[in-house]
Write a structure and sequence with these properties.
Keywords: Cell membrane, Cytoplasm, GTP-binding, Hydrolase, Membrane, Nucleotide-binding, Receptor
Strand content: 5-15%
Number of strands: 8
Subunit structure: Part of the signal recognition particle protein translocation system, which is composed of SRP and FtsY.
Organism: Streptomyces daghestanicus
Order of helices and strands: HHHHHHEHEHEHEHEHEHEEH
Structural class: alpha/beta
Catalytic activity: GTP + H2O = GDP + phosphate + H(+)
Radius of gyration: 48 Å
Membrane topology: Peripheral membrane protein
Helix content: 40-55%
């Protein structure tokens, strides 16, 4: 019995010892990781030394007080107030004076017109002027849109004068041709644009024409011509059917200080024209220019409406001028347009545009013969001051060159 008890005690002791060994080995395996190495700490910079311990100063670039940019006031920077943009007021332009304007533009006109004059001078300078040569002269004039009747008259007079003259020097031929062309153009015709009524103000001018002739642009340029002569102008934007026509006319007016009266897009043109004349009278303007809607001369209804505009305007006062704008490049078709417009609104003057882009300067002669109405203004380009009063002598000189 004692032996059995002793054996049990020994077994318990052995088991306890084994358990201790196992637990000890596990603890060794779970030991905490060693702490990380201490970071390198940079020592703070040493304080500056003074006196004997001070270091030898290093050479450095230094600036004087005058060279240092300091804020204004010497204090804290004050924020500037935001810049408020002001509406830009359009600057009024000073148009070129009308006196001698065609002479100044002569080179521009002659560049495209010299074909007619030089062609005639070349033919007339031939040693023998036979029938074939005279037919070529007629063809040259007809090609330049002079017209059949004026061409016949000119050729007949040239034949007679050349026969009487006998010897023909280039200078004599040029003088002869110049005289005959001036006679054909009609220097005796009254070409003044009438803007001064017999009584009261303002003078009333209505501008008419088909689409695409430069009618609205011509109205704006005419305003510049009048302002250059010291006249005050009111513009009536009665072309209410073409998109942006009123804006275009108003821009022309603003450049020279002319007031523009306009209505709603698609509104009654006669109403706008009436209001323009009314306002012109109220403010004492010298001239009222009325830009009408472009219309096809073949459309009876549109032409009747143009007549209505004229009648409504004349409730204030009679029209002083009715200017028909024609494209010089349209030739005989322009004459057809002129006839129809003259029947509806009693044309008093012609404005020929795009005369710088064609060698058919003879349209000046043809349209005057057709209507018995003078060409009063000609357009010589896209520039603002390229509208010039028509001067027969300057025009013929541009045709035949120097």
């Amino acid at each position: 019995m004692d032996i059995l008890i002793l054996a049990v005690v020994i077994a318990v002791v052995v088991i306890g010892a084994l358990s201790g060994l196992v637990v000890g080995s596990r603890r060794k395996k779970q030991l905490p990781k060693p702490p990380p190495a201490a970071p390198d700490i940079t020592a703070p910079p040493t304080e500056p030394h003074v006196g004997e311990e001070a270091e030898t100063p290093r050479d450095e670039t230094r600036r004087t007080i005058e060279e240092v940019d300091l804020p204004d006031g010497g204090g804290a920077t004050v924020a500037e107030p935001p810049v408020v943009e002001e509406l830009e007021v359009p600057r009024l332009e000073v148009p070129e004076p009308t006196a001698g304007r065609l002479v100044r533009l002569r080179s521009r006109l002659s560049r495209s017109q010299n074909a007619l004059g030089k062609g005639l001078l070349t033919l007339l300078s031939r040693e023998h002027l036979d029938e074939e040569t005279w037919e070529e002269i007629e063809d040259t004039l007809l090609t330049a849109d002079v017209g059949v009747q004026p061409t016949t008259e000119l050729v007949d007079r040239l034949r007679e004068r050349v026969r009487v003259l006998g010897t023909r020097t280039p200078e004599e031929l040029r003088t002869l041709l110049r005289e005959e062309l001036i006679t054909l153009v009609g220097p005796e015709m009254d070409r003044v644009v009438r803007t001064e009524p017999a009584t009261g103000k303002p003078g009333i001018v209505m501008v008419v024409g088909v689409n695409g002739t430069g009618k609205t642009t011509t109205t704006g340029k005419l305003a510049r011509v009048l302002v250059a002569d010291g006249r005050s102008v009111v513009l009536g934007a009665a072309d209410t059917f073409r998109a942006a026509a009123a804006d275009q006319l108003q821009t022309w007016g603003e450049r020279v200080g002319a007031h523009t009266v306009r209505g709603p897009e698609g509104g009654d043109p006669a109403s706008v024209a009436f209001d323009a004349v009314k306002e012109g009278k109220e403010i004492g303007s010298d001239v009222v220019l009325i830009d009408t809607a472009g219309r096809l001369h073949t459309k009876t209804g549109l032409m009747d409406e143009l007549g209505k505009v004229k009648r409504v305007v004349e409730k204030h006062a009679p029209l002083d001028e009715v200017l028909l704008v024609l494209d010089a490049t349209t030739g005989q078709n322009g004459l057809i347009q002129a006839r129809v417009f003259a029947e509806v609104v009693d044309i008093t003057g012609i404005v020929l545009t795009k005369l710088d882009g064609t060698a058919k300067g003879g349209i000046v002669i043809a349209v005057q013969r057709e209507l018995g109405v003078p060409v009063k203004l000609i357009g010589l380009g896209e520039g603002a001051d390229d509208l010039a009063p028509f001067e027969p002598e300057a025009f013929v000189d541009a045709l035949i060159g120097d």
